[in-house]
Amino acid sequence: MASINIIAAIAENNAIGLNGKLLYWLPADLRRFKALTTGHTIIMGRKTFDSLPKGALPNRRNVVLSRSKKNFPGAERYASLKDALASCAADEDVYIIGGASVYAEALPLANRLCLTEVHATPKEADAFFPDFNRDEWKVSFREEHTKDEKHDQDYTFIDYIRT
Question: For residue 160, is it within any domain?
Fold first, then answer.
């Protein structure tokens, strides 16, 4: 089975979005996202695909989960996460990139979490990363960052692998 990675930027209260948009502008997080996912398969829900400013992300196999017959330019469509994962090669690195319901469905299947933990709590949010038991995961990478001229919040890149 493919290696299933979940990638997300989460606030201290697990918030991930508001009105179809990310909560925080973190250029370093966007660079990390690009570095980790380029050359791999990314799986997302329809709303996440619709939120991408230029549509399908380049240099990645884009997969959208949707039961509608709508066309998603530059992306493949599957009706379920199970079907999308079945289309992946056994040695493939797959990244689940959102939204909240896709994260919740993929979490029990994931081998690794690639999180950006933002050290802030937004005033408003309508999408949340699912709660997960950190005792079931081991930290494999951690990198702390403090706010600077390009980042308004402190944040930590942290990767977890399932124990």
Answer: no
DSSP 118: E
In this prediction, residue 2 has a pLDDT band, given cuts at 50, 70 and 90, of confident
Q: Domain total for the chain?
A: 1
CATH of the domain at 66: 3.40.430.10
Strand 75-78: give its sheet, edge to edge.
75-78, 61-65, 41-45, 93-96, 3-10, 112-118, 155-162, 137-145
**What single DSSP character describes residue 40?**
S
> Could you tell me what percent of the chain has a pLDDT over 90?
97
CB 123 within 8 A of CB 14: no
Residue type, 32: R
Residue whose structure tokens are 């709660």: 131
Q: Letter for the amino acid at 91?
A: D
Express each pLDDT in 72-127 by its tens digit: 999 999 999 999 999 999 999 999 999 999 999 999 999 999 999 999 999 999 99
